[in-house]
Amino acid sequence: MENTSAQRVDTVRASYSARSREYVDLFGSMASTHPSDRALVSAWATTLAGPVLDAGCGPGQWTDFLAECGLEVRGIDLVPEFVERARTQYPHLVFDVGGFEALDAATGSLGGVLSWYSLIHHDPHEIRTPLAEFARVLQPGGGLLVGFVEGATVGTFDHAVTTAHRWPVAELSQVLLEAGFEVLEAHTRTGSGHRPHGAITARRQNTR
Q1: Which letter does DSSP use for residue 150 in this model?
Q2: Span 23-79, pLDDT tens digits
């Protein structure tokens, strides 16, 4: 299992690194985001108290967006090229290279975690590890927002960079419950030329 997970991490990092410039050009600004996503993240930000982690920050546009919402936020990403771009574009913010399996944050130290499409490359049997780590670093009542590709069943789909997974809202919600979260809201969206989108807001349960 550990070797498989390490291989996945290496594959994801290498695949995004090879296409980092293309990715930044296509998706590296808030102009490329959907208005309803900006509204959702902005509303979620108002519910948070304490430092926030943008887990899988890419080139940093959502990290900066959260900072503009008045939050203390830092970003992490597996891809060094994304972190370098984020540091250059947003020098007032903190960005580090890192994964989600062992976060550099104390237990119960964060008020929120944004995981916007950053778990789509985790196999269904692996996704519980980062979710458990998110639960660990969040204070009781802390908020989690997950963006993902929604589908009728759990399964893989053709992704431009590397293998990715879709989730039905109900099944991902159940995994969040098992990881120690209370699911608050779920949102879905479809449109011509776009994959079905899902987003779930959740809160770290008070029991540990």
Answers
A1: B
A2: 666 676 788 889 999 999 999 999 999 999 999 999 999 999 999 999 999 999 988
**How many C-alpha atoms does 29 have within 13 Å on its Cβ side?**
6
Q: Two tokens at 93?
A: 């913010």
Cβ–Cβ under 8 Å, residues 35 and 65: no
**Contact assessment for residue 19 and residue 92, using Cβ atoms and an 8 Å cutoff:** no
Domain boundaries, the chain: 2-204
Q: Name the superfamily (CATH) of residues 2-204.
A: Vaccinia Virus protein VP39 (3.40.50.150)
> Residue 138 and residue 124: Cα distance in Å, rounded?
22
Helix (H, G, I), strand (E, B) or coil at 95: strand
Find the helix or strand (DSSP H, E) in which 188 lies.
Answer: strand 181-191
Distance CA 202, CA 176 (A): 8
